[in-house]
Every structure is written in structure tokens, then in C-alpha cells.
């Protein structure tokens, strides 16, 4: 396929810059401990300094892949699919999610919410970042709010975001991995004092799995 044609297909969402795909155990948030197939899409300009997948930021490093091929691989492994990034909403998620849904799969997304919501989702995990705040729309649709706690100031930011989220969303505080020794005790104390929140840990890293 010619370069111009590829670009058109990417713009339409019929092809996506695929960084990696793998079958593993969900390590974070509400669905921790459940089997899921992860589709990691390249491209992100949110720019979190503590991001643990910075290699995902430059979409040009990851090959444009037909959504049909992505769906075929996913359907071989699991009934639950997690689309993550990078920032997956940088791209049009309609073609991918419709094909996944037509294959009878449950579809989750992990997003900062910084771009307009596209696609059809069974579960939306919203993880806002200070560097590029979510769109207003996604606060109404998110099922889960996952706030990353890197320092003490992040508790205030977490509360600001919780005030915007819909009443049905489940609230999580998660220590940033490099600060887990310092921040986990503070999170535990905070959740005990503010029980609307739950603790989320990156359990896949403790298990040494992807």
C-alpha cells in the first residue's frame, strides 16, 4: 500500500499505529486480576514525565496495522480486550471497536480523555493528567476514575477530577511506580480517611508480567 493511501487509512481509523499486543492479566483498577488481551496503540502528546511507556509516544515508530488483523489476533485469545496507549483517542476508534464488537468481544479503554471520545466501549477507565485535561464529555461516560499519585499535590488534583466525574464512576488512587514506597502509605491513609476512594496497585509489575 502506498504511503499516501496508508495515511488516509490511518486518518479514518481503518489502520492504527500498533505498538504491541499481548494476552495477560489486568494489573490495575476495577478489573485487576482478570485475563485480558491488550492492544497498545502508538501516539501520545500528553507528556507525563513519569510515563513508563514513553516509547509509545512517537506514532511514526509503530507500523500502521489494519484493524481487521488486530481484531483477528485479539479474538484468538480473550473475550475482554483493553485498548491502551499511548493515547488511543488520538485516533478514530470507531472502526476498531465496531469490528471488535462484531466479533462478540467486550471492549475496555484506558485513556487520559484528552481527545474526543470515539468508539463503542463496555468500560472506560479515565486517568486524567494535569498536562492535558480531559474533554468535558468523557466525565459523563467514564466507568472508572484512576488517579496516579506521584506526590502529595496529586491528592488535590484527584479531588478536582472526582468532582467532575459522574456519580456512578468508581474512584481509584494509584501510586506512580517509581514513588510507590513513599506514596503507597499516604494513599492507604487517605483512602481510610476518604472511603469513596479505593486503592489501585500495578499488580502486574509485582507479578513480573506484561
Automatic annotation (TrEMBL):
Cofactor(s) required, per the database record: [4Fe-4S] cluster; S-adenosyl-L-methionine; Mg(2+)
Domain of life, per lineage: Bacteria
Top enzyme category: lyase
EC code: 4.3.99.3
Keyword annotations from UniProtKB, A to Z: 4Fe-4S, Iron, Iron-sulfur, Lyase, Magnesium, Metal-binding, Queuosine biosynthesis, S-adenosyl-L-methionine
Binding-site list for [4Fe-4S] cluster: 44, 48, 51
InterPro entries (alphabetical): 7-CO-7-deazaguanine_synth-like (IPR024924), Aldolase_TIM (IPR013785), rSAM (IPR007197), rSAM_sf (IPR058240)
Known pathway: Purine metabolism; 7-cyano-7-deazaguanine biosynthesis
Binding site for substrate: 25-27, 40, 84, 210
Residues of the Radical SAM core domain: 31-210
Quaternary structure note: Homodimer.
Record function comment: Catalyzes the complex heterocyclic radical-mediated conversion of 6-carboxy-5,6,7,8-tetrahydropterin (CPH4) to 7-carboxy-7-deazaguanine (CDG), a step common to the biosynthetic pathways of all 7-deazapurine-containing compounds.
Protein name in the entry: 7-carboxy-7-deazaguanine synthase
Organism the protein comes from: Flavobacterium rhizosphaerae
Gene expressing this chain: queE
Amino acid at each position: 500500500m502506498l504511503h499516501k493511501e496508508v495515511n488516509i487509512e490511518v486518518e479514518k481509523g481503518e489502520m492504527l499505529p500498533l505498538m504491541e499486543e499481548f494476552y495477560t492479566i489486568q494489573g490495575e483498577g476495577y478489573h485487576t486480576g482478570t485475563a485480558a488481551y491488550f492492544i497498545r496503540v502508538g501516539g501520545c502528546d500528553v507528556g507525563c514525565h513519569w510515563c513508563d511507556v514513553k516509547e509509545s509516544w512517537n506514532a511514526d515508530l509503530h507500523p500502521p496495522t489494519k484493524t481487521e488483523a488486530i481484531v483477528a489476533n485479539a479474538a484468538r485469545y480473550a473475550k475482554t480486550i483493553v485498548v491502551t496507549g499511548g493515547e488511543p483517542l488520538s485516533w478514530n476508534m470507531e472502526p476498531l471497536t465496531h469490528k471488535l464488537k462484531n466479533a462478540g468481544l467486550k471492549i475496555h479503554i484506558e485513556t487520559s480523555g484528552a481527545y474526543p471520545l470515539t468508539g463503542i466501549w463496555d468500560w472506560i477507565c479515565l486517568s486524567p493528567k494535569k498536562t492535558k485535561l480531559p474533554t468535558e464529555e468523557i466525565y459523563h461516560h467514564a466507568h472508572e476514575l484512576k488517579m496516579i499519585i506521584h506526590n502529595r499535590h496529586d491528592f488535590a488534583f484527584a479531588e478536582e477530577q472526582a468532582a467532575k466525574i459522574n456519580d456512578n464512576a468508581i474512584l481509584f488512587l494509584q501510586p506512580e511506580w517509581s514513588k510507590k514506597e513513599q506514596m503507597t502509605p499516604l494513599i492507604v491513609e487517605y483512602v481510610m480517611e476518604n472511603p469513596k476512594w479505593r486503592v489501585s496497585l500495578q499488580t502486574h509489575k509485582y507479578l513480573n508480567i506484561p
